[in-house]
Amino acid sequence: MRLLMISALVGLLVALPGQAAARMAFEKLTDFDFAGTTYYSVKNLSLYECQGWCREEADCQAAAFSFVVNPLSPSQETHCQLQNDSSAANPSAAPQRSANMYYMVKLQLRSENVCHRPWSFERVPNKVIRGLDNALIYTSTKEACLSACLNEKRFICRSVEYDYNNMKCVLSDSDRRSSGQFVQLVDAQGTDYFENLCLKPTQACKNTRTFANARMGVSEEKVAQYVGLHYYTDKELQVTSESACRLACEIESEFLCRSFLYLGQPQGAQYNCRLYHLDHKTLPDGPSTYLNHERPLIDHGEPIGQYFENQCEKSAAGGSLPGTQDKVDTGTLPVSLDTIEDPNLTNLTRNDVNCDKTGTCYDVSVHCKDTRIAVQVRTNKPFNGRIYALGRSETCNIDVINSDAFRLDLTMAGQDCNTQSVTGVYSNTVVLQHHSVVMTKADKIYKVKCTYDMSSKNITFGMMPIRDPEMIHINSSPEAPPPRIRILDTRQREVETVRIGDRLNFRIEIPEDTPYGIFARSCVAMAKDARTSFKIIDDDGCPTDPIIFPGFTADGNALQSTYEAFRFTESYGVIFQCNVKYCLGPCEPAVCEWNAESFESLGRRRRRSIESNETKSEDDMNISQEILVLDFGDEKREFFKADPSTDFAKDKTVTIIEPCPTKTSVLALAVTCALMILLYISTLFCYYMKKWMQPHKIVA
């Protein structure tokens, strides 16, 4: 028995080897059916046509394939059902037993090793095999557990057990067919057993793989007769001998061939070799399936044939035979998790919480960004292993290969890194792990956090190795995104030159992918010469005259106000200037009054921040934007070009906007043109008719 011992750290999740984009795969259940919503069904499709249809349909979540055996024929009539909703993904859902049923569930697995076979795993609900574990990991989803099996490099992962309640994933190099151990499936409510069907034919057994008559207390003739009627034939071919049929099963690559039925010498063009992905261990009732089977009512005289199943031989020494596929480059199991202590370690190194037993010391620093927490690690010697977010090892990790400087970015939004936030404090737990799968005593766990304090914009974080209660505090500064003002027309195009009365959208923007919100107050519209100004938003964030310039409303992270263009008497240029500050998350609106009516304007930060910052702080940002406002006919006046106050012509191109024609004027012009054309045609018609009707003069 090969058993990989795990260091006892209750509740810790460990990394899955390899990071890859999610790929589509399927799991299959034999003689089980789950409740689901069928949106399409069709008869007389093959098993692989049914599964391929579900693969191509984006709405298909599961496919139920069944076939009915007609004992009078005997023949198989198939029925394929595509389901856009299935209870198979619910761990508490109980499947129903259903004879001659293959239930296939679509999966998304993060592994480069997902095979191109119809299904990657065979699932047996609420079952486990005891005492044959090779590795234990904790991961949040069944898909991550199956991906771990496909990504495993230290040994050949033949089976998986996933405990949904405890998020416990067990990998094993044994399965139901392994020899040399007592293998038995036992009941385990809430835990499913999976067999890896992406194995190469030579990997199906630890040692030598043979095919022999199934010995299970039932006559060979009765077993072969049941197989011929109730097994779905994966592939048929014509061969010259039983050994050729055996070889075809051994080298089959489109599916993992577990058994075959040889019907004797070929007769004409008939197929005499049938290959199956099933064997008696795949069936839920095992040998009892054949024992309770009755003979067909009519005997057509067709040959019953000989049935052979895959068997795994036991090696003489109880281990792997030399040169077999179970030997891997990374060493044989069991793997010892006891780390070797470096004799050159000093007492100072042993007592440092940032150094481990191998003599590796970690210098961990955290940089708090707008959208992520960057964890930078430097080591005193090259590090091999992984760094990942606890609980999200499959979606938030970095593989480190012989490096003394590396970084992990923890996203602050979404579930990829599972960053937690409470009242402006974003926290996560990062694991520095030497081994690709398991955690050892040499690994380090750090608690990192970023506290966003908007009054001073200081960012603090702490990090704490889980075995040391002392918190290390380091101050940092955030990289606050710069705000900007944009003025858009009704078509959402940014403009620089407009006319009086044009409807405009005044926007104050910051990047969308940031945790900040903004508020604006003390907004002023000034003439270009700065001799005249008009406050449009007061110090509390309320509009001074909503008719001229309404209050701000929220549009995502931006503030916007829709107004009609205005200008000052003595200047064409209008400069807008606003005082902008940040909030962590959405800002609280100001309650404003105008003409005895109350309304809200997003022009101030949260009320508690206003009370503690009555005077203008150093964090206020003043931003401005300039726009040229013309009246009709201004572009034809000579002084417009010579006026020194209109400096726009010196450094930018001034776009003169002509008034656009209205729909009424366009329609009137079209009608006028149509009438003129009709009149012209009528005149020509009358002229030629009159000329045609005049009598011709006869010359004597």
Structure description:
Among the domains are: 20-119, Hepatocyte Growth Factor, CATH 3.50.4.10; 208-293 and 302-313, 3-Layer(bba) Sandwich (Hepatocyte Growth Factor); 362-454 and 470-474, Immunoglobulin-like (Sandwich), CATH 2.60.40; 484-605 and 620-630, Immunoglobulin-like (Sandwich). The model is unreliable at 1-18, 317-348, 455-477, 605-618 and 638-658 (pLDDT under 50). By secondary structure, it is mainly beta. It has a 10-stranded mixed beta sheet with strand order 2-4-3-5-1-6-12-9-10-8. 14% of the residues lie in helices and 36% in strands.
Summarize this structure briefly.
It comes from Drosophila willistoni (Fruit fly). This protein is mainly beta and 700 residues long.
CATH topology-level fold name of the domain at 484-605 and 620-630: Immunoglobulin-like
CATH architecture of the domain at 484-605 and 620-630: Sandwich
- Radius of gyration over alpha carbons? 39 Å
Uncertain residue segments:
1-18, 317-348, 455-477, 605-618, 638-658
- Report the end-to-end length measured between terminal Cα atoms: 133 Å
Determine and state the CATH class of the domain at 484-605 and 620-630: Mainly Beta
CATH superfamily descriptor of the domain at 484-605 and 620-630: Zona pellucida, ZP-C domain
Strand line-up across the major sheet:
2-4-3-5-1-6-12-9-10-8
Write down the overall geometry.
flat
- Would you report the number of β strands? 36
Number of helices: 10
How large a portion of the residues is in β-strands, by DSSP E? Answer: 35-45%
Helix content: 10-25%
Structural class category: mainly beta
Return the average pLDDT rounded to an integer. Answer: 77
The largest sheet is: 10 strands, mixed
Transmembrane segments: 666-688
Domain ZP: 367-599
Signal peptide: 1-22
Organism: Drosophila willistoni
